[in-house]
Amino acid sequence: MHWQGLGAWAAAAELNMLVSLPLFFGEEVGRQGHLFPPLAQDGTGLKPIRAYVITGAAFALWHLPALLTGGQYPGRPWYVSVLPCW
User: Fold this and answer.
1) Domain-located, residue 17
2) So what's the pLDDT on residue 63?
3) Where are the alpha helices (DSSP H) in 29-86?
4) Which domain covers residue 30, as residue numbers?
């Protein structure tokens, strides 16, 4: 195994995480921090399930344009990226 390439790979992975963190942190705070708690607050057992369904649908709809334009799988048909998500 070539250990010299491992250091470069680890440095690139760490840089990628540091750059990506601010981009994706707002999405998680918005969805899990601001959208989910008000939807889930109730004494009944069905309210959290409804909150999970609504936040899951919002997450799916938010990412649908990127999936349809091939952001995850460039050069592939839209159904390659959309259908595995459902």
Assistant:
1) no
2) 83
3) 36-40, 46-68, 78-82
4) 25-85
pLDDT at 86 over 60: no
Round to whole Å and give the CA distance between 41 and 45.
10
Nearest Cα to 37, choosing from 56, 52, 58, 25? 52
Residue 73 has pLDDT above 60, yes or no: yes
Is 43 part of any domain?
yes
In a domain, 9, yes or no: no
- The tokens of 33 are what? 């921090």
Task: Indicate whether 67 belongs to any domain.
Answer: yes
Give buried/exposed letters for 39-71 (b at 16+ CB in 10 A, else e): eeeeeeeeeeeebeeebeeeeeeebeeebeeee
Based on the structure, what is the number of domains in the chain? 1
Q: What six digits make up the tokens of 41?
A: 């607050």
